Amino acid sequence: MNDGSDVYLAEWNNEIVGTYTLTWSDPLIWQELDNLESGYIHRFAVNRKYRGLDIGKYLLKSAEQQIRIKGKKWIRLDCMAENPRLNQYYGDYGFQYIRRIDGEGWSANLYEKQ
Question: Per-residue DSSP letters for the chain?
């Protein structure tokens, strides 16, 4: 990727088990709330084969650390509004719901933590 994003892969036993991308601006999704004090987690995913091993928590912690290293105050992400399990997951991890946005054929919930 050549837009200033940072892509991370988690590997275990020579297999990719998870990934996330960090961006440093997201005006499309965060609109007027987009700012230079935030890091944005995107494309967060864990290989289903490794479900239940807390890899997601490890990746979120890693993303937080990378965002803090960049000197950012806020950790932000979005997810599909119609996915209650994922929304609950982020809430349980300490992210606060900010608002819902609706696009053409999709809806997302915005979350952040300090």
Answer: --SS-EEEEEEETTEEEEEEEEES--HHHHGGG--TTEEEEEEEEE-GGGTTSSHHHHHHHHHHHHHHHTT-SEEEEEEETT-HHHHHHHHHTTPEEEEEEEETTEEEEEEEE-
